[in-house]
Amino acid sequence: MTRHSRFEQLAVLRSVAKWLPLASLVAALAGSASAFFLFALDAATRWRETHPAIIWLLPLAGAAVGWIYWRLGKQVEAGNNLIIDEIHDPQKTVPLRMAPLVLGGTVVSHLFGASVGREGTAVQMGGALADQLTRLFRLDNEDRRILLMAGIAAGFSSVFGTPLAGALFGLEVLAIGSMRYDALFPCTVAAIVADQVGLAWGVHHTHYVVSSVAPVTLWSVLAVTLAGIAFGLTGRVFAVATHRLGGWVRRWIAYPPLRPFAGGVVVAVAVWALDAHRYIGLGIPTIVAAFEGPLPPWDFLGKMAFTIVSLGTGFKGGEVTPLFYIGATLGNALAPLLHMPVSMLAGIGFVAVFAGAANTPVATIVMAVELFGPAIGPLAAIGCLASYLSSGHTGIYHAQRVGNGKYRPALPEGLRLSEIAQYRLQAKAAHAKAAEATKPD
Q1: Taking the CA of residue 158 as centre, how many other CA atoms within 13 Å lie in the half-sphere pointing to its CB?
Q2: Of 170-174, 220-224, 261-265, 315-319, where does mean pLDDT reach its minimum?
Q3: Do domains 12-200 and 218-390 have the same CATH topology?
Q4: Could you give phi then psi for residue 402, rounded to 5 degrees?
């Protein structure tokens, strides 16, 4: 062994010795916070289901959460996007107040009947708690980036019970088409330990059963590809509509607490008028039912509409569990049309709509295997990749960057998703100007 290789091995050992305890500490904090959050969420959901009239208080609950964020949470209002931005361009420590604010805001949203998820809460708690260790251990910006990524991985893993997918999500969500492998070990350790911490606290995750998987044939590949395109377009519509509604509401309602108040009025009246209780909250019973037999084919549209209104008007939570609902029910509706097993296409839709909306195909392929078993892996991979490609350069996280674009013409590396539309307008104007200049007089 050469002297250089000995030094390299020592550096590897020092890295492992540093990140094993650090990532485990992040996992203990994030896993414990997620366990408390999940217990509170279960209690809130049970209360709402036994007291359905509480939906009429949703506007007041939304206004209260909006007022608290307006007075105390302006620095953390960006949520997941703030953490992604801090990883790409470190500025200052994520305020610890993000954790209790998003936890309380999400539980209140679920208690009174908003249609929101839970991954955003877990990721924000994991990131905020992890970042408090930056000063304690005097970490530089590069180590801080990795610590925040480990916090994302730990939060995602502990709230869904998918440690490998959680590790990959922490790596993949930052930029389309690229991952930082120097963070692979810390993210994997954090995700696995956080999941075990949650289980030690007594967390029980929902079990989804895929009872039948089609063999890999020419038709099954074609059918799942077609379904994947539908899943990706659905994820694109969800992301674009949520962002556009949010922008419209901010322009037309200047006083922040009134935004969720207005959204709460819309949701409460729609639930009453349409008897649409199945479209609020997490909707886990409907997701489970999508694996078992036929459901109304419009369920995915109902959940999408209620979630877009809830998130677009400022209710706190996340997008992922609603995307699971949308994908599973859309897969349920497409299965008979494509002559595929209902439970299999519901499972692929479950992960593939999320793959397209979050631009995380590798994490969702692994999630499919973790949740539904290895037999679904090949077809789930096709569905997730088709969804990822067909959703285009849009997504639920505006702070996500472009790494390697999905297709040509390539977009500049490092461009935020929120900047792509403006970049394309400028590129189009520059092209037109250049063409005009080359015209003969």
Answers
A1: 41
A2: 315-319
A3: yes
A4: -90, 125
